[in-house]
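Board notes (copied after class):
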Amino acid sequence: MILSLDLQNKIRYVLEHDGVISFVTDTVWGLGCLPESEKAVKKIYEIKGREKEKPLILMSDDTYPLFDYIKDVPKSAQKLMKQYFPGALTVVVPKSDKTPDYMTSNLNTVGIRVPDNEVFAEICRCIDSRVLATTSANLSHEPAALSYDEAVNYIGGKADMVIEDYGYTAKGLASTVVGFKDDEMIIFRHGEIQL
């Protein structure tokens, strides 16, 4: 256990009260909240100065908690998830009714990812759903934070909490983002994983 019980309780409290937290992942630092909190999702857009057309993605410590938020996952997407989760891959798939429109810019798809980072995994386990609506920790069109100090500098005064990395650092390359049309893969962003 990396996070103390006291810290876990604080994280849970902040998230359950429409709060926004910043945390390390395996790629870059992230900013996240509960997907069910429209107030917190709006706050993320405000913190970043992010365009409303740019959706957030869902991340968890495991694939299974994400299944409630998605449906009709193409076979080729399932195969990639088996191969690269946890890891630096974001898969864009059809969303279920549980995924709110306000976090997906009214799109009928959502990006999902399981980062390979133990601190992030423990953060997810602090909350019942184990799922966070997330984006990178930075101001829009600026580089993403790659360390605790950068996260504090970029968004520290605006997020409700910046959680230390405890030595589990971000590698610095963004995740590869893929989607599917008729079960054919489309690469939206080339990142750490080469497909």
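Comment from the instructor: The mean pLDDT is 96. The chain has one domain: 5-189.
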